Fold:
Amino acid sequence: MLRIAFTSDLHFDGTGTLTPAQEVRRVANEAAGCRPHALVVLGDIGHPLRNFCDCLDTLCGRAPFVGVVSGNHDVWRDVAHPSRSLWESVLAAETRARGLVWLEQDSIVVERTAIVGTMAWYDYSGAEPSVGFDAARYAAIKPQISNDAHWIDWGWGDPEFAQMLRERLVERLEKLEADASVDRVVVATHVPVFEEQMRRDPSNFAWSVANAYFGNPRTGQEIARFPKVRAVVSGHLHTSVRAVVKRQRLPDIHACVVGSDYGNPTWLMLEM
Ligand SMILES: [Fe+2]
Ligand SMILES: [Fe+2]
Structure:
């Protein structure tokens, strides 16, 4: 039985304002105590970079493989780094320097199962259906809803950036589908990608209008085409979800969200 432990949204904060170090250590200890083959952190690790790095130091050595996906908060600019350099080089370099796996580009293969990852990003395709899909409107109102609008200083629009990441992921999944040494694929994302992972409540602002910034079902549609994909585990929502995505003539996909919240991180084990 393959065991992969997932945690997410640790929001490590050395000052203790968001999630204090001892809570991150607790989660790392609990997950490591179950002796997983791999431990994967699904983004929103820490901001600024010092917190990202200190959080990774807490996770080092907790499993034979430790995989890292970044989240939207990890690419918030800080005094020394614009978002684009964090995304394109700094976060990957800090991850690899610690012997951890930067899943946005590198894969973990264990027990003939490949673990790949991507931040995925949101492209407003998760928008509440009753509100309607209007990309220009969701881009325009973003500063009132998401702090990403104030803290991310790269020039990409959300749908454009999400598409870039989707195309890279699809390329990797195509290669794994053709790789005879891999039987199964697990996809780790920061932003949820299946409707089954989303929370919907038209009476609640977070689970209606703000869903435009919480999901990316368009990427999920692409992932679901690949027969070897058996599980997708995500973060970003700060609420726990365990669901199953049914496919015609293909195996089900386990679809989970790790529901860590500020100050109260959690983790889950995927056994397959
Ligand atoms: Fe988060
Ligand atoms: Fe997030």
